[in-house]
Amino acid sequence: MKTLYDILDWPGTKWLFIVLALVMPLASLLTWAERRQSAMMQDRLGPNRANIGPVKIMGILHFVADAVKMIFKEDVIPANVHKGLFTLAPILALAPVLIAFCIIPFGPTIYPHVYTQTLDTYALATQPQNAMFADSIRLQMFQVDFGLIFYFAVLTLANYGGTIAGWASYNKWALLGGLRSSSQMMSYEVAMGMALMGAFLVTGSLEPGFIASHGASDSMSGSNPLNWLWLWQPVGLILFFTAAIAETKRAPFDIPEGEPEIIGYFVEYSGMRWGIFFLAEFIEIVFISSVIATVFFGGWQVPFLDADGFRVGGYVDQVNHISVGGWFRPLPHAIVTGLQFAAFGLKVILLCWFQLMIRWTLPRFRADQLMHLGWKLLLPLSLANIMVTALIKLLFMGGS
Amino acid sequence: MSTTETPTGTPPAPSGGVPATPPTPPQPAPASNSVTLTIDGQAVTVPKGTNVLEAARTLGIDIAAFCYHPGLPIVAQCRQCLVSVEKNPKLQPSCQQVCGDNMVVHTTDKQSTLARQQMLEFTLLNHPVDCPICDKAGECTLQKLYFDHDNQDSRVDVPKVHKDKAVDLGPTVVLDQERCILCSRCIRTCDVVAGQHQLEFANRGDHEILTTAPGEQLDNPYSLNTVDVCPVGALTAKDFRFTMRAWELEATPSVCNGCATGCNVEIHHKNGRAWRLVPRHNPDVNDYWMCDEGRFTYHDLREERLAAALVDGLPAGWDRALRAAADGLAIGRTSGQFAVVFSALHTNEDNFALAKLAQAWGVSHFYVAGKPPVPARADGRLRVADINPNMAGVKAITEALGLTVKPVYELDPSIRGLLALGDILPGVDPGRLKELEYVAITAHERGPVPHAKVALPTSDWAETSGTITNNKGHVQRMHAAFAPPGQAIAGWEVIVRLASISSTKLSWSHVRDVFKDMTAAVPAWNGLTWAREARPLALRFAGSRG
Amino acid sequence: MSASHHEEETHDMGLKVLSTSTIHPRVRTVQVSRPEAQDTTFLAATAKGLGVTLKHFARNLFLPMKKLAKRNAAGAPTDETWRNEIETVQYPEEKVTYPERFRGLHRLTLREDGNVRCVACMCCPTVCPAHCITIIPAETDDKGIEKKPAIFEIDELRCVVCGLCVEACPCDAIRMDTGMHARPVEDRADAIETRETMMGRGVRSIAVQGGEGPDWRAHGHEVTKTDVNR
Known about the structure:
Distance between the termini of chain B: 33 Å
Number of strands of chain B: 24
Largest interface: B-C, 24 and 26 residues
Mean pLDDT of chain A: 87
Structural class of chain A: mainly alpha
Structural class of chain B: alpha/beta
Strand content of chain A: under 5%
Number of helices of chain B: 12
Low-confidence stretches of chain A: none
Radius of gyration of chain A: 23 Å
Helix content of chain B: 10-25%
Strand order of the largest sheet of chain A: 1-2-5
Mean pLDDT of chain B: 89
Strand content of chain B: 15-25%
Low-confidence stretches of chain B: 1-23
Order of helices and strands of chain A: HHHHHHHHHHHEEEEEHH
Helix content of chain A: 55-70%
Number of helices of chain A: 13
Distance between the termini of chain A: 44 Å
Number of strands of chain A: 5
Largest sheet of chain A: 3 strands, antiparallel
Oligomer: heterotrimer
CATH class of the largest domain in chain B: Alpha Beta
């Protein structure tokens, strides 16, 4: 049994189960959901006909059909392209996004030996070496103190995918797309990092697992929605969200693709090579949603659901190990972790939906407007946000 | 002596030439021989004896008529051309009314207008109005006059009289008795043009029909002229029937190549294909008529045509074929055992160009090829025994250039190289041809052509712009109706190409230039001018025909 | 350059001139207008736009579909308060009704005896602006209707569906009232409609020909026998 838990706790296993089994299908489904949703927003029906025999669940199988089509399409590598880089570019676009998922906490730590009982938080705090807390499985692959910095570092690499694709395609439009892609990335990376700085100041941590489980303030439970950072960092949320959409290179920031004019850096790609770019874009959406959910919306936290059950308004008496005041409903550990895992998924899906809403509501920015927004608005605002946050923290929260 | 026939006007007037002017309008004659009358308020002076209808036409007033035809005797039986003449209580048929001095004629007054309208309604009384089926639709005089003068719904509410349809009159013509309006033009045409009385009327009243004379059928060699003169679709040619609608055709003026008479014709064609030949008026040559045999010559335009050059019987491009021809002929030329054959079936320009090339090459043996005469054809009318369209032209050119020309069947046994125009070499043994360096310039691949080392494709007569000379010495202009098939080009142009590849300079770039040099070289043709190329006339703009 | 011209020019540019250089009149300081803050942040506009799209999305997601008839009907639907706004017609299952004068594939009408009504008068190929009609006429045994189309072909790829052939036809022989679309084909040659396929779609025409009905000729013969003029 011990080996099984070891295997389950191994990051590779978690990556396989979570990223490949959950994130990838979600991203694929998004390709269908986006078309359905945009149709609904535009008084159309959208793709609703793909079926396997009589099974036609609102056409949800369109993403399967798309995948089959792309895999079997002719893989055209035009003459004069740099074959090595041309082949490498889609991988460079996809791999960093998949790697970045390592830092995302998809749920709380699971203690398999007590999954039928209510978790004894006092015992966990005082005797973490107890046998009943052994073989724990953390639903986060890579817990490091520099967590979100890792995300910035890795995701920047994805930019090389687009730029290299544009250069290797031996096509003027593709090259233009690649250049636009890198200029846009450079403009928004800065604002994006700065936007999260306030959150770091408030929580005192760069580790997304810590931010999700503790929230902004130690005086409240991490499960209290008022303790989530959306309330403490509203400007940071809006700035980060804007910059993150720009990072995904989607409308209203789809200048690198520029469908009506240059098609973009993947203009020479076809079949599954193009499909990988496409998929990377959607996985990026999922990833951005995951980061926002983790940092600003409490991650896997269900409102008022502590590790041992629902608790509204009370607190745990640290001496008597009992819940005091308010309303408390103890729940088995398995149900708690299940709810929390589902809550994370729900938050991610809602944020994805919201990104699609924005994509199909706003028209594309002009290139100068994009730069104007990035450098003259987002960056100064994020800097101001850091200053104000730091001041408030110093003056009213005693600093640290 | 002769002249070019110029359809677009400005005929030259060389000494002794007969100007090919149209018959109408008659030129004002000296005062003693002319009368002056007033038609619709306009004064006009015409020669004595002219009828009112023709006089009105000189003023541009077209009086409707069915039975009147300028080439036929006047019978005044359709009553369509009635006009009012002052001091005359009754309306007069303008075709029969001879112009008198100080006569005052009205064609648009109430009386004559009403008479024409009612006459037309009367003519249409039993007409089946089956224009969708009728071959004449689009060039029908009845159709045209209906729109001009009647243009109202039929007021007849009793059944129409029905007669026989699709009556076989002879080997060439089919009659629809219902459509016939009994104008008798066809009867007169047989009488006058062919001199044979083969058609006549039978029965009376509205059961009167056109039929063949007892014991006769319509089989004279000019029978298809009846179809041309028929103002309605009663007579249709079996050759043309149900093949093409008149309004789809285009007409290009040309000259019949069937015999030495050189009847002036119009080629009616569409999409590079001739569908029929109809005679074109020329009082000096053929008047309004031509023979049936000549009409059918258009079929030959599509028979066994040479569309690409042949080298040893296999298709070749122009460059290779010309080089092979020049190389082959060079052997005979250097040894002096080389002959050139003119063709009585090709234009003056082709033969002249060939003669100039032969002179430049220093050729001494000249022959002429032509079809043998058919004495049975000669009837003292249009048909003659000589069925070569241009024998007179070849003679004139070779005489003017001082060449001694012999018939081709007298081909000298020593000859080793032969450059021949046309696809006939009568009297020459095909086995002998195979041993010769024989180069043919021809439109058809038949006769001796398959034995040629090299065959160079030319346009046939309907595709050619040029002149031919008929047995009376008229130099008559042909216009190209459509493009020749494949890689074929005009005969003179083939000769120019052949000259240029053998380093001989013949600096013609247009058939007009050949014509200019030729008329300068042939004394009898001095002063002839080249008429502008005629544009094909779409028949749908031509009104009625017949 | 005159002063009046100078002022006129600045006026044309719509900019307020603050000062003009003394050295060269074209060198001057002008006041340019910058967009207002609310126009550059885009937040308010974004929120407003999201409101519009969200309304449509929610309505179309949760409310039932309109009936096809309503979607077909011209003009504003009357009672559509609680229906969604989707106009999509699900083609193979649902079909819009075509207008009465819709021009579809050609058909050749038939006579009483089942023969083709066309007499190959060539009016339709003459009037056809696309030159898509090919008719080769032939003679029939019927002395009354002497002519028929031996070949009657329409290249539906060339056809511009103008309907002039129907207008030109003097015999009501060709119609475009089948309501059918041109078939999808794998080969261009398959798009050529032949006489037989168009007759297969044909109907008996009861149009009056010659003013006396399709049997006017036979009818006429009967009457003629008792005709007083005979």
